[in-house]
Amino acid sequence: MKTIVLDTTGKLCPFPLIEAKKQIAELNAGDTLVIEYDCAQATENLPRWAVEDGHEVTNFKQTGDAQWQISIQKG
């Protein structure tokens, strides 16, 4: 299994979600996508999309004043 890091810091929503969808499509089941972002809207959009799409959120943390990191394991 592999882990891919997607840094979308500085990109406006919905860019983090769009890029996450593209990236996870290229991964195999069990692989992990780590997304770093600073768009507050994505704190709701990314976890909701992951669960609705059958993936598992394995880590979700705030890394700065307005920065977050979420890890999504492909289902």
Automatic annotation (TrEMBL):
<feature type="domain" description="UPF0033">
    <location>
        <begin position="6"/>
        <end position="30"/>
    </location>
</feature>
<protein>
    <submittedName>
        <fullName>Sulfurtransferase TusA family protein</fullName>
    </submittedName>
</protein>
<comment type="similarity">
    <text>Belongs to the sulfur carrier protein TusA family.</text>
</comment>
<dbReference type="InterPro" id="IPR001455">
    <property type="entry name" value="TusA-like"/>
</dbReference>
<dbReference type="InterPro" id="IPR036868">
    <property type="entry name" value="TusA-like_sf"/>
</dbReference>
<dbReference type="Pfam" id="PF01206">
    <property type="entry name" value="TusA"/>
</dbReference>
